[in-house]
Amino acid sequence: MLPFHLFSDPTVARSLLRYRWHNLPGAQEKARRNGWQGALFPWESARSGEEETPEFAAINIRTGLRQKVASAQAEHHLVADIAWAVIQYWQTTGDESFIAHEGMALLLETAKFWISRAVRVNDRLEIHDVIGPDEYTEHVNNNAFTSYMGVLQRPAGAEYCPPVWL
Q: Tell me, what's a Pfam family for it (predicted)?
């Protein structure tokens, strides 16, 4: 949604990002409940900002059991998607007020999430147990998109941070 609005009506794009900012406390709480720091945004949310993804979906025709929905527990690329959207909005609009207030708060909390979400394996960091944006491969380690977006975010906080904060 954001790319279309960013280039057709940036005020709508800003509103979409402000929705995330307004729900930042809930995302911080969700991260904390799952043992991480920063902000873990809901996969599906309503006006309240709370997770709305159902725990179970349709009945599996092979097993006859209700199918568990894993999106809320593992589609963490959404956190990086939000940070990417903040960066894209700021680069496109140059909205200093947004980046200084809402944008930096979002970038800081999403960066904290990725730092706490990473797992050290030997001499490197990995991101385990995720669902990538294709939504077909569940609970994988080191999904290319998720890992790349998480790593990309690390320097973004410093790059867009007002010099007075450094």
A: Glyco_hydro_65m
**Rounded distance, CA 163 to CA 166, Å?**
5
| 135 is annotated as an active-site residue | yes
Pick the catalytic residue from 44, 135, 138, 159: 135
What are the residue ranges spanned by the domains of the chain? 2-165
Answer for the pair 24, 107: CB distance below 8 angstroms, yes or no.
no
Q: Alpha-carbon distance 71 to 66, whole Å?
A: 15
Mean pLDDT by 10 residues, the chain (166 residues): 92 97 96 96 88 87 87 90 94 94 94 92 93 88 90 64 51
Considering the domain 2-165 in this protein, what is its CATH number? 1.50.10.10
Name the DSSP letter for residue 129: S
Q: What is the pLDDT of residue 110?
A: 94
**Around Cβ 27, how many Cβ atoms within 10 Å?**
26
